[in-house]
Structure formats: C-alpha cells, structure tokens
C-alpha cells in the first residue's frame, strides 16, 4: 500500500496524524517488513530522540486496529509490517533464527478446502503463521545446535 493511501485511510477513519504517529509509520514502512517493536522504536528514535516505547506500542496497536499494519508473532515477540491488501500473505517463521518468510495464500487453499469439506469447519487463516526451520538453518545445523 502506498504511503499516500495509508494516510488517506487513517484520515478517513478519523485518526489524527500527529508527527510521532507519522514517524512510527515511516519507521515501519522503511524497515521493509517484519519489524520488532524495539526495532521500530530504534528507528523512530533516530528522527525524534524523545519518543518513548509506550507511544510506539500504542501507535502500532492503533495502526493494527485500523488495518494499516499487520501483526506477525515470531516466537514470543510481535513483529509488524505494512498491510498490503493487494498481496495478502501468511508467514513461515524460523524458530532458530527468527526469520519470517512470506507464504502466498494459495498454498493454504487446499488445506482450507479440506477442513471445510471433511469437517464443515471454516478456519481463520488470515495472517496464519507456521513455525519451523528455514533452509539456511537446516543447512548450517543451527537447530541441531539449539541456537
Ligand atoms: Zn532460520
Ligand atoms: Zn510478511
């Protein structure tokens, strides 16, 4: 989603775009996705040293409620990325290195279909996250080392 569209969406929902909120939004979009709160905080602080982490938390949760950022659980930490309605995706999260990889929704179509046909069950698969070990970590045996 383009920065302009995000701002319009927020304005349309009556969100006041304070300088701090804009800073935090920029920090997430410049980060290129999957950013931890501490990382967003660090980036925002570079432009405005007086910002505090509680504001970063509150603002990220506000943005999430407004649908402009998506929350991804990586281990026990929350990461954030700008929501892209044009390219919704799920996540594969690597346990050893904490890396998050995007997974196109098509991969889950069959799974969704199976649950619906066999169990008459409608799964909530928006923003689905599956954990495991990425190919890099498998190659270097990070999981075996318990890293
Ligand atoms: Zn990994
Ligand atoms: Zn993602």
Summarize the structure in words.
The chain is α+β, with helices and mostly antiparallel strands and 147 residues long. Helices cover 43% and strands 18% of the residues. Strands 1-3-2 form a 3-stranded antiparallel beta sheet. A 3-stranded mixed beta sheet has the order 5-4-6, with no helix packed on it. Helix 2 packs across helix 3 and helix 2 crosses helix 4 (53-65). The model has no long low-confidence stretch (mean pLDDT 89). It binds zinc ion (2 copies). The site of one zinc ion (ZN) has 7 residues, from helix 6.
Keywords:
alpha+beta; Arc Repressor Mutant, subunit A; Dna Ligase, domain 1; 2 domains; three-stranded antiparallel β-sheet; 6 helices; 18% strand; binds zinc ion
Please render the helix and strand layout as text:
Blueprint: H1 3-12, H2 19-30, E1 35-36, H3 37-47, H4 53-65, E2 69-74, E3 77-82, E4 90-94, E5 100-103, H5 109-119, E6 129-132, H6 135-140
Parallel strand pairs: 4-6
Antiparallel strand pairs: 1-3, 2-3, 4-5
Helix pairs in contact: 2-3, 2-4, 3-4
The structure holds zinc ion (2 copies).
CATH class assignment of the largest domain? Mainly Alpha
Number-wise, the strands total: 6
CATH superfamily of the largest domain: Winged helix-like DNA-binding domain superfamily/Winged helix DNA-binding domain
Biggest sheet strand order reads 1-3-2
């Amino acid at each position: 989603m383009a920065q302009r569209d995000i701002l319009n969406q927020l304005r349309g929902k009556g969100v006041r775009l304070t300088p701090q909120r804009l800073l935090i939004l920029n920090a997430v979009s410049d980060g290129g996705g999957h950013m931890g709160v501490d990382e967003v905080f660090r980036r925002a602080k570079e432009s405005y040293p007086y910002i505090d982490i509680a504001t970063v938390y509150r603002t990220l949760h506000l943005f999430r409620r407004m649908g402009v950022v998506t929350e991804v659980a990586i281990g026990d930490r929350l990461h954030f990325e700008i929501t892209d309605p044009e390219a919704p995706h799920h996540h594969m999260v690597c346990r050893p290195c904490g890396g998050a990889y995007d997974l196109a929704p098509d991969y889950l179509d069959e799974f969704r279909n199976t649950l619906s046909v066999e169990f008459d069950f409608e799964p909530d698969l928006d923003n689905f996250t599956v954990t495991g070990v990425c190919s890099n970590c498998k190659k270097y045996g990070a999981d075996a080392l318990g890293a």
